[in-house]
Amino acid sequence: MSAFPKIIICDLGKVLVDFSYQHQRPTFLEHCSVGPERVQEFFSQATFLDYERGRVSNEAFFEAVKRDLGWKEDYACFVNDFCESLKLNRDVFDFVFSELKSHPDVWEIWLLSNLGPLHYEYVRAKWPGIFSNCRRVFVSCERGCRKPDPEIYAAVLEESGQSPYVCCLIDDLEANCLAAQKFGFDYIIFDGVDHIREALRSRTVTAVAKK
Predict the structure, then answer these.
(1) Mind listing the pLDDT tens digit for each residue in 121-160?
(2) 3 state DSSP class of 120
(3) Which of 175, 183, 137, 194 shows the shortest CA–CA distance to 12?
(4) DSSP string over 142-209
(5) Is the Cα torsion angle 172, 157, 121, 108 positive or negative in sign?
(6) Helical (H) or strand (E) element with 132
(7) Which end of the chain has less Cβ packing within 10 Å, N or C?
(8) Per-residue b or e along 155-190, where b marks 16 or more CB atoms closer than 10 Å to that residue's CB
(9) Distance between CA atoms of 58 and 120, rounded to whole angstroms?
(10) Is the pLDDT of residue 116 over 80?
(11) pTM, two decimal places
(12) CA 174 from centroid of its chain's CA atoms
């Protein structure tokens, strides 16, 4: 894709909202009987990935946390520690929903995110502006699939009715971007607001040069 994208598809985690499963709140780690390496490993394994696909309930997920991480506190404490680690990236929020949304070449902003039910509920309540500013929202726990599963990109195209060639995915993970590329999407691997701005500027310059 050489021209400025018409539809910006934005990731949530580590883009609009900052969090890291391997660096949870200190109290989260304190409430586990295992070390931080095991915690990090847990959040890349099948139980958690299926939780983000909506195939594991909140209760079953908590039971897995108790079993695999040796969680020592109650469910309410877990929900608090698990969700309060999320922080809004205000500079990215302002850039996407002010500068990009008002750009004359941009038609719409969409959201495409891997989120389990607890984080999805928390983010919707805490920062409703993320969702109200997005024309379309694709969240893994509602879709039954997650990036980089091919099914989620296919769903985006089928339901939107748009060509992938007018779309640009902004995501922090290369694997998610490369999977989107197979469907024809342009992409930018997130590395801060300045990087996004420069990447989009270069697309404009390239398009002008080709005229």
Answers:
(1) 999 999 999 999 999 999 999 999 999 999 999 999 999 9
(2) helix
(3) 137
(4) HHT--TT-HHHHHHHHHHH---GGGEEEEES-HHHHHHHHTTT-EEEE---HHHHHHHHHHHHHHHHH
(5) positive
(6) helix 128-132
(7) C
(8) bbeeebebebebbbbbbebeebbebbeeeebbbbbb
(9) 12
(10) yes
(11) 0.91
(12) 13
The pair phi, psi for residue 12, each rounded to 5°, is: -100, -65
Checking DSSP bridges between strand 186-189 and strand 7-10, what pairing results, if any? Answer: unpaired
Residue 64 neighbours by CB distance under 10 Å: 19
3-state helix, strand, coil in the chain (%, to 5): 55, 15, 35
Query: 10-61, pLDDT tens digit by residue?
Result: 999 999 999 765 555 678 889 999 998 999 899 999 999 999 999 999 999 9
- Structure-block tokens of residue 124: 């919707």
Q: Which helix (H) or strand (E) holds 9?
A: strand 7-10
Residue 175's alpha-carbon distances to 63, 67, 182, in angstroms, are 29, 30, 11
Give the CA dihedral 194, 196, 198, 201, nearest 10 degrees: -140
Structure tokens that stand for 89 in this block: 């990236």
Q: What are the tokens at 50?
A: 């299926």
User: How far, in Å, CA of 111 to CA of 134, rounded?
Assistant: 6
Q: Which amino acid is at 75?
A: Y
What distance, in Å, lies between the first and last C-alpha atoms of the chain?
14
Check residue 23 and report its DSSP letter: G
Distance CA 49, CA 56 (A): 9
* Amino acid, res. 155: A
